């Protein structure tokens, strides 16, 4: 994305963002609530229209992009819609959609990928249960399994850790590290990194619609190093006051 | 039941009823999941203008109803896509416009009166012509074909529009497809159930079957079964007790729903480990 700007209801949310994610990177978009994190990744994918600038997916603008199977989008939460029941397996299997042709029956490869994705997130034993009966963390796992089932090159995850129990967070971290080992690209939005922290190769911090940090992720520990800290810091524009502050000093 | 089939008009009505019972819940499952339960009603009202137009111009009302209701459905979908807030107001405008247009046009038609519209509003078993059966058969095949052909994509769209977009699906086309398919279903159901009650067959069987099911596919299959039971059962009873078929079909469907509410609770309770630990 270059010079990306987005306004929602005439209120500027992103005010000129330049961001390029390279293959194999694990990028975390951090920032306080309302800093435009989710908007950024939605705009990157072309889900939210830009009011200025441009965004390219593998070199093509979203409207002309055809290789959607390369992208696995994990929304913030499972949408329940009108409440028609649907099983976990149905949701996960629908992740294959970008690889399927109309009228072709579900192939063995589709089934295999679906089962593998269910196994990976530890939901295989519940595959026939309705998703409506699941807890937040379990629903998140189902969403991740749906993206996994499509076997994409790049995962785009909107707050995969929000409102998720510790066990599911750890499982997410394990799954991500496998993906990273396979050379997949990951772009995720997070409020807190938790167990994902060691996997992140690059952190992009947003504030007021601008990128205020782009570089190595925070490694220091302690309250000052937490990503949330930067955004309430009263002297954020000055030189870091604390040696623990992870923002670059240049 | 056998003596019923001796009447030609009853044979035609039963074929139409079977097709309605199959097609309406099939598309209805997607419509309910997309939170568009009132879409069918909106289209039904608009279709009334189409019917009156048919009388006015001397063409078959079924055909003019198809044309006008498809146009109405596309209009509703475009308004829905523009902005969610004004969606229900726009839908309401179409409701009023459809009814007013229908009554106005039928009064202008030679020999037409509101009584002519009654059979279209609430259904009528004696008036299903052979031509109607052919049109209904073709439309039902089109509806079921579309559900089979685009089912997987429609499923993703109705689950989460953004995920559908991020999977490269033609979201706008699929949304229009749902609206147009709903419009065709309205016309299919018009003769048997009537325009004012069409939507019930898209919604009630789905609500009934989701009391028992866990999956999307199974919900759709079961709702099609419930749909057929309601239409055929209702139509048969309307032959004996001489009431408009639409009313009794919907009453049968609703009775099924109430029964399912009680039974469904019992079925769910007897299932182990459904709730999350």
Automatic annotation (TrEMBL), chain A:
The keyword Iron does not apply. It comes from the Bacteria. PROSITE patterns: ABC_TRANSPORTER_1, ABC_TRANSPORTER_2. Keywords: ATP-binding, Nucleotide-binding, Transport. Residues 221-250 are annotated as: Disordered. Residues 1-233 form the ABC transporter domain. Residues 227-240 have a biased composition (Basic and acidic residues). GO terms for molecular function: ATP binding; ATP hydrolysis activity. CDD domains: ABC_Metallic_Cations. Pfam families: ABC_tran (PF00005). Gene3D superfamilies: P-loop containing nucleotide triphosphate hydrolases. Belongs to the ABC transporter superfamily. This is ABC transporter ATP-binding protein. It comes from Streptosporangium minutum. The lineage of its organism: Bacteria, Bacillati, Actinomycetota, Actinomycetes, Streptosporangiales.
From TrEMBL, chain B:
GO terms for cellular component: ATP-binding cassette (ABC) transporter complex. It is found in: Cell membrane; Membrane. Keywords: Membrane, Transmembrane, Transmembrane helix, Transport. Its main location: membrane. GO terms for biological process: response to zinc ion; transmembrane transport. InterPro entries: ABC_BtuC-like, ABC_TroCD. It comes from the Bacteria. Gene3D superfamilies: ABC transporter involved in vitamin B12 uptake, BtuC. Belongs to the ABC-3 integral membrane protein family. This is ABC transporter. It comes from Streptosporangium minutum. The lineage of its organism: Bacteria, Bacillati, Actinomycetota, Actinomycetes, Streptosporangiales.
């Amino acid at each position: 994305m270059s010079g990306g700007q987005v306004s929602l209801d005439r209120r500027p949310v992103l005010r000129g963002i330049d961001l390029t994610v390279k293959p194999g990177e694990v990028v975390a978009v951090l920032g306080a609530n309302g800093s435009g994190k989710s908007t950024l990744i939605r705009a990157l994918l072309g889900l939210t229209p830009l009011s200025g600038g441009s965004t390219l997916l593998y070199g093509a603008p979203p409207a002309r992009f055809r290789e959607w199977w390369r992208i696995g989008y994990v929304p913030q939460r499972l949408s329940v819609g009108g409440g028609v029941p649907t099983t976990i397996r149905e949701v996960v299997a629908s992740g294959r959609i970008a690889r399927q042709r109309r009228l072709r029956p579900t192939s063995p490869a589709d089934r295999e990928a679906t089962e593998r994705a269910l196994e990976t997130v530890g939901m295989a034993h519940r595959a026939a249960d309705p998703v409506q009966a699941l807890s937040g963390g379990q629903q998140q796992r189902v969403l991740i399994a749906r993206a996994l089932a499509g076997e994409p090159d790049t995962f785009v995850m909107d707050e995969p850790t929000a409102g998720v129990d510790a066990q599911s967070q750890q499982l997410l971290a394990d799954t991500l590290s496998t993906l990273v080992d396979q050379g997949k690209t990951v772009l995720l939005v997070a409020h807190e990194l938790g167990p994902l922290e060691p996997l992140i190769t690059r952190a992009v911090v947003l504030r007021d619609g601008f990128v205020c940090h782009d570089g190595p992720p925070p490694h220091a520990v302690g309250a000052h190093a937490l990503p949330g800290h930067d955004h309430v810091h009263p002297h954020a524009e000055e030189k870091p006051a604390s040696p623990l502050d992870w923002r670059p000093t240049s | 039941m056998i003596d019923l089939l001796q009447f030609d008009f009853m044979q035609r009505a039963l074929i139409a009823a079977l097709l309605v019972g199959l097609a309406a819940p099939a598309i209805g499952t997607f419509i309910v999941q997309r939170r568009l339960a009132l879409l069918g009603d909106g289209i039904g009202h608009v279709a009334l203008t189409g019917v009156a137009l048919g009388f006015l111009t001397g063409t078959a009302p079924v055909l003019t109803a198809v044309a006008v209701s498809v146009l109405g459905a596309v209009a509703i979908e475009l308004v829905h896509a523009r902005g969610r807030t004004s969606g229900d107001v726009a839908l309401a405008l179409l409701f009023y416009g459809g009814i007013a247009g229908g009554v106005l046009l039928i009064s202008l038609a030679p020999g037409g009166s509101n009584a002519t519209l009654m059979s279209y509003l609430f259904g009528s078993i004696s008036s299903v012509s052979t031509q109607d059966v052919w049109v209904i058969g073709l439309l039902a095949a089109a509806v079921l074909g579309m559900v089979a052909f685009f089912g997987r994509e429609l499923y993703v769209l109705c689950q989460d529009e953004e995920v559908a977009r991020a999977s490269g699906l033609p979201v706008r086309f699929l949304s229009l497809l749902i609206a147009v398919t709903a419009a065709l279903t309205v016309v299919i159901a018009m003769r048997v159930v009537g325009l004012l009650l069409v939507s019930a067959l898209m919604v009630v069987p789905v609500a009934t079957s989701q009391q028992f099911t866990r999956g999307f596919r199974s919900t759709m299959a079961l709702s099609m079964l419930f749909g057929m039971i309601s239409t055929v059962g209702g139509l048969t009873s309307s032959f004996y007790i001489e009431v408009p078929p639409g009313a009794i079909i919907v009453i049968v469907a609703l009775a099924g729903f109430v029964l399912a509410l009680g039974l469904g609770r019992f079925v769910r309770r007897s299932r182990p480990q459904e709730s999350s630990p």
